[in-house]
Amino acid sequence: MDIDKDLVAASATPLVLAILSEGPSYGYAIIKRVGELSGGELRWTDGMVYPLLHRLERRGLVEAVWGRSETGRRRKYYRLTRAGAEHLARRRRQWRVVDIALRGVRLMASDPTLQPG
Amino acid sequence: MTKEEVLEERIGEWRRYLRRRRAIRSVDVEELEDHLRSRIEALREAGLDEDEAFLVAVKRVGSLDSVSREFALEYTERLWKQLVIPPEAGGASPTARRDAFAAVALAVAAAAALKVPELFGMHIADDAATSFYLRNISLFVLPFLAGFFALTRRLPRSGWYAPALAFIAAALIANLLPFEPKGHTAVLTAIHLPIALWLTAIGFVYGGGRGRSHQQRMNFVRFSGEWFIYYTLIALGGGVLIFFTVFVFEAIGLNAQQAVAEWMLPCGAAGAVLIAAWLVESKQSVIENMAPVLTLLFTPLFAALLLVFVAAMIWTGNAIDVRREVLIGFDLLLVLVLGLLLYAISARDSQAVPGRFDGLRLLLVLCALLVDLLALWSMVARTSEFGFSPNKTAALGLNLLLLVNLGWSAVLYVRFLAKRAPFARLERWQTAYLPAYAVWAWIVAAVFPIIFGYR
User: Fold this and answer.
1) Average pLDDT over chain B, rounded to whole?
2) CA dihedral of B402, B407, B408, B411, whole degrees rounded to 10
3) What's residue B24's pLDDT?
4) In whole angstroms, what is the distance from residue B412 CA to residue B335 CA?
5) Which regions of chain A are under pLDDT 70?
6) ipTM attached to this prediction
7) What is the distance of C-alpha B437 from the center of its chain?
8) Does B8 touch chain A (CB under 8 A)?
9) Is B63's CB within 8 Å of A54's CB?
10) Domain A5-114 class?
11) Sequence ranges of the domains in chain A
């Protein structure tokens, strides 16, 4: 399915922060996880994730830590900071509002595949 | 080499490319490399072999930033050809062969061009023709070099105009201005025209018509350094060849010296310019650059020399004896130090932390600046004896240019060592300052004769 670019862009930050709230992770794994979560529909390019991660790091929402992969390679892990967790909670509330509003409208009600539950 | 080793080598090449060409530290090279390797592993698990996995992974990582995109563009085409087209038995790729042919053909053309004036009665060994040849030497050789790069880089038609203009201007300057045959300005022009043309016309064509970006200029600086080293090596080899030629022919009673002086030496020197350029181009990605290796060796030696010199000056209390030759000597010293600094910068991993060698380099630059300032001070104290002759003005101008360049470099270097500025600022200062030298070379070549009345 072709997802609208704006939607992908808007959901990028909350998705990354939410994935990192599950535990520290690194760029490649985040891309894989996004694919898993969306059932393969959201296919992020490599070019999206690192600028985003560095932007979040600059804003203090995540912090970077150098660690080692299973093969012993040096790997940069990112983990959520407290500011990041607060930002994520705020974003979750906003998305919930939008989700509820969209469900309440006929747009969602008329499409049987999108019925809640 | 096993496939694993080939893969490691390729990843190493990718990593070195990224490290060298990176201007702004927007993405961590190590982070990228980890990403690349994860991709390669995933692709290999999916069933691709090492070559295919590398190719696909590099193309995908190429979307990350402009540098990896550049690498992907440049190298994947070659790699793709290697994968798709079965290798010929011991044959070079068609592009390499075409380049080699062009290089040799143009070298022969340059050598021939050098002898053309003889048809008009100007013998290269004649005294009267010496001035003509000196002033025009760059015009016999450099246009062919520009042509070589235009061909290998597929310069579009629009890109031929700017260098052509530069060559025409140089030809007019060298031949239309009424120089006094043995005058100083003639010599100054003869020295500075090649430099001006090298920095502007050759630099322009080398960058494929795009001379503005920091990367292109840095690449051109690297090329110039390697070219100079190759040319010196070829010249040494040529010297040995000439020696044996004269020796061998003398052994059978024939005097080969005239043939050597009129044919071998000039034609060889002209052709070698092109051959050296072709050699630098063709070995570009295979071997580590030589210039940075040499700077690694000579930086401590020169730093030690200057330290001892400063100590000796303080110990004996002798002031610097200021005559014209001395100033030129200090110019050369500063040029040397600038060269050592520049080539160290060209090879440095811009993300590496400051190390001991950086301190040593800074020490070298500071000593050179100190020594130069002392020389200039002595000169200022004796301005009445100075006088403004063309040679002295040229030397002084160059000295001031170098002072500004090295002085600000020293400031930026200190800031870098104090971790208050990234290394990239120092790199950018060097490449941004290059046009200053080009402008100065043109001024000395074109304007000085007019100002100083062609003396």
Assistant:
1) 81
2) 160
3) 38
4) 19
5) 106-117
6) 0.75
7) 13
8) no
9) no
10) mainly alpha
11) 5-114
